[in-house]
Amino acid sequence: MNGAPSYFSEEAYDQRLADFLALFDRTPPGVVRHVAPADLNNPKTQGQVDEAKRNILKLMAIGGLAAVAGGGAVAGALQYAQPPLKGLASYPTVQLFYSDGSAVTVDNVASHINPDSNELTLYNYPLTNEPNFLLYLGSPAPNGIGPNNGVVSYSAICQHLGCVPPFISYYPAGKCGNFNNGRAIIHCICHGSTYDPFVSQTSDGGGAAILTGPTVLPIPQTLLKTDAQGNIYAYSMIGPPVKDHFTSLTGGTGVSGRSQASNLTPSNQQCPA
Ligand code: FES
């Protein structure tokens, strides 16, 4: 995927599998979604893909390959077009690591993640191609753990049309003047949706609340816990399903064991109007 952040490229096979699942199971005809454009400062004018057209081209390509392979083109295409479903029966418990290899702990999180910086700490959960924000907000937040109960995690896939970092990112307190009374926000510059990481919006107590649309769903929250040594784990999700999923557990390969965080500092942030 050209221009994709590094945490997506490491699972190229799973991305292809997810594309096939989207082709046959999840993408309504004519849906246009955003993918990461090459120009980080121009997300509204680049990177739009007509899924229906793309899917037809994929199917034609598959059929053509099957024909070249020696007849039975239709049967071959259909067989290839139905990969085994991958997913999880339940949420895995996954230990979080920083990119330098050290474990994320309640003792070191404040020194690695600055609530006043827009640098993002991202890790994949519960599927290998799905980024989450790991945030230290510095003050109590719903389901927060660690210092000041301010360590929280949310899906980093926008609930509107699925934009991912750096297009959706964290804006520290004061970054955007009086917007949200000066408090930190999660903002997606693809179409302007904003979310409040300090406020839950769903009946189960999860989901960063909607501040502005066009999204109609809050962002799912990934729940965190610690072991006796203070190491931090992701272990479940609450709120709505991750964007484009019927449940957050299906549609790809599950993360297991540990998930390594990567850092990204968006250079394309624009405060909401
Ligand atoms: S994808 Fe439209 S606002 Fe995020």
TrEMBL record:
Renumbered residue ranges of the record's region Disordered: 249-273
Gene3D superfamilies xrefs: Rieske [2Fe-2S] iron-sulphur domain (2.102.10.10)
Disulfide bond among keywords: yes
Keyword Chaperone: no
Keywords, sorted A to Z: 2Fe-2S, Disulfide bond, Iron, Iron-sulfur, Metal-binding
Pfam families assigned: Rieske (PF00355)
InterPro entries in UniProt: Rieske_2Fe-2S, Rieske_2Fe-2S_sf, Rieske_Fe-S_prot
UniProt domain Rieske: residue ranges: 122-197
Molecular function as annotated in GO: 2 iron, 2 sulfur cluster binding; metal ion binding
Start-end of Polar residues biased regions: 256-273
PANTHER family listed in its UniProt record: CYTOCHROME B-C1 COMPLEX SUBUNIT RIESKE, MITOCHONDRIAL
Protein name stated in the entry: Rieske iron sulfur protein
Species of provenance: mine drainage metagenome
